[in-house]
């Protein structure tokens, strides 16, 4: 739990803050990560205040003095760096499980058939499909997000891109089956070796495991958003 950083951002104190104390608070927030390596003299000089003001501000924040505050800030900084490192490692792990080369054929097909494209996704993947449709519109590609099987009847000369993190959802499989019956090309952004991947003409795929928590599958979408962004970036290069 952070001991200082939230106080500096929220500043909900039980008394009014003086102008000089505000200057110290502003300095502490702006230079937060370097405070553990600075002296009270330097902070006083650069914030145009005094050591007494810094000690008074430290007490305002709930500490006995600047030394106590400085140690708490050091703990906050270490916690921030540790948390950031975990997120970076998690993202790197996800990136390593995306087969970016598999995007190439999909992108080429999308570019050649860019005015006849449907998108389909369920649950969180439906949100990703809406995000992709918006990004495609910025490129002048009018992709349509469909949510019901009956909609396919009106778009028989279109291709459909199925977004499915697992590649095994029943409605996704049924839609793929019906699309093929309607002679539509089926594309996908999905999991490697899944049923939807195997049934697609072109598939941009990943091998990110399903996140399970107490028996409930929690559908992550970070890898799907990263994959969508890769497709959009490659399409942009086609237009340049």
UniProtKB/TrEMBL annotation:
<protein>
    <submittedName>
        <fullName>Transcriptional regulator, RpiR family</fullName>
    </submittedName>
</protein>
<dbReference type="Pfam" id="PF01418">
    <property type="entry name" value="HTH_6"/>
</dbReference>
<feature type="domain" description="HTH rpiR-type">
    <location>
        <begin position="4"/>
        <end position="80"/>
    </location>
</feature>
<dbReference type="InterPro" id="IPR036388">
    <property type="entry name" value="WH-like_DNA-bd_sf"/>
</dbReference>
<dbReference type="GO" id="GO:0003677">
    <property type="term" value="F:DNA binding"/>
</dbReference>
<dbReference type="InterPro" id="IPR001347">
    <property type="entry name" value="SIS_dom"/>
</dbReference>
<dbReference type="InterPro" id="IPR009057">
    <property type="entry name" value="Homeodomain-like_sf"/>
</dbReference>
<dbReference type="InterPro" id="IPR000281">
    <property type="entry name" value="HTH_RpiR"/>
</dbReference>
<dbReference type="GO" id="GO:1901135">
    <property type="term" value="P:carbohydrate derivative metabolic process"/>
</dbReference>
<dbReference type="GO" id="GO:0097367">
    <property type="term" value="F:carbohydrate derivative binding"/>
</dbReference>
<dbReference type="InterPro" id="IPR047640">
    <property type="entry name" value="RpiR-like"/>
</dbReference>
<dbReference type="InterPro" id="IPR046348">
    <property type="entry name" value="SIS_dom_sf"/>
</dbReference>
<dbReference type="Pfam" id="PF01380">
    <property type="entry name" value="SIS"/>
</dbReference>
<feature type="domain" description="SIS">
    <location>
        <begin position="106"/>
        <end position="240"/>
    </location>
</feature>
<dbReference type="GO" id="GO:0003700">
    <property type="term" value="F:DNA-binding transcription factor activity"/>
</dbReference>
């Amino acid at each position: 739990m952070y001991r200082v950083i939230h106080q500096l951002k929220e500043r909900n104190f039980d008394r009014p803050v003086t102008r000089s104390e505000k200057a110290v608070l502003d300095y502490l927030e702006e230079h937060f990560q370097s405070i553990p390596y600075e002296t009270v003299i330097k902070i006083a000089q650069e914030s145009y205040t005094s050591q007494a003001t810094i000690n008074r501000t430290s007490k305002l924040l709930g500490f006995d003095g600047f030394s106590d505050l400085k140690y708490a800030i050091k703990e906050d900084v270490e916690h921030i760096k540790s948390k950031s490192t975990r997120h970076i490692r998690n993202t790197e792990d996800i990136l390593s499980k995306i087969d970016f080369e598999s995007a190439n054929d999909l992108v080429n097909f999308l570019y050649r058939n860019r005015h006849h494209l449907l998108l389909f996704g369920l649950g969180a993947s439906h949100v990703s499909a809406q995000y992709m449709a918006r990004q495609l519109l910025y490129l002048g590609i009018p992709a349509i997000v469909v949510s019901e099987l009956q909609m396919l009847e009106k778009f028989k000369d279109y291709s459909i891109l199925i977004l499915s993190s697992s590649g095994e959802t029943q409605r996704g499989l049924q839609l793929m089956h019906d699309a093929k019956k309607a002679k539509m090309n089926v594309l996908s952004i999905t999991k490697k070796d899944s049923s939807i991947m195997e049934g697609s003409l072109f598939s941009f795929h990943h091998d990110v495991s399903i996140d399970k928590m107490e028996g409930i599958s929690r559908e992550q979408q970070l890898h799907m958003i990263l994959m969508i962004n890769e497709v959009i970036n490659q399409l942009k290069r086609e237009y340049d």
